[in-house]
Amino acid sequence: METPPWRERLRAEDELLEQLDARVEQARRRRAEALKEGAAELGSVYALAKQLGLSWTAVAHAIKKYTTA
Q1: Can you tell me whether residue 44 is helix, strand or coil?
Q2: What is the predicted pLDDT for the residue at 45?
Q3: CB 50 within 8 A of CB 38
Q4: Cβ-Cβ contacts under 8 Å for 38 (sequence gap 6 or more)
Q5: 25-36 per-position pLDDT tens digit
Q6: Element of type H or E holding 37
Q7: Distance in angstroms (rounded) separating the CA atoms of residues 67 and 1
Q8: How many whole angstroms from its chain centre is CA 58?
Q9: Count of CB atoms within 10 A of residue 58's CB?
Q10: Residue 14 CA: distances (Å) to CA of 9, 17, 18, 27, 31
Q11: Backbone φ/ψ region at 15: left (φ over 0), alpha (ψ -120 to 50), beta
Q12: How many helices (H) and strands (E) does the chain have?
């Protein structure tokens, strides 16, 4: 089987990267919504972060950046 020309391979890989970027963005938004729900359930971002073993600033940043409200 012959390898496609480099331009075709490059175009295909660029399309794949665009698709992956879109999926990562969607996953970040879903994750942030879950973090937001967890913070509401536990009473604070700090309590959630402590339970997850993350910094509260990282959790707060993710919620702020990837959720609308």
Answers
A1: coil
A2: 98
A3: no
A4: 48, 51, 52
A5: 999 999 999 999
A6: helix 6-42
A7: 47
A8: 13
A9: 13
A10: 9, 5, 6, 20, 25
A11: alpha
A12: 3, 0
Length of the chain (residues): 69
| pLDDT reported for residue 10 | 98
The residue behind tokens 């175009």 is 11
φ/ψ region of 2 (left if φ > 0, alpha if ψ in -120 to 50, else beta) reads: beta
Domain spans of the chain?
A: 6-66
CA–CA gap between residue 55 and residue 31 (Å, rounded): 16
Q: What is the pTM of this model?
A: 0.84
Q: How far apart are CA 24 and CA 38, in angstroms?
A: 21
Q: What's at 19, amino acid-wise?
A: Q
Q: In one letter, which amino acid is 42?
A: L
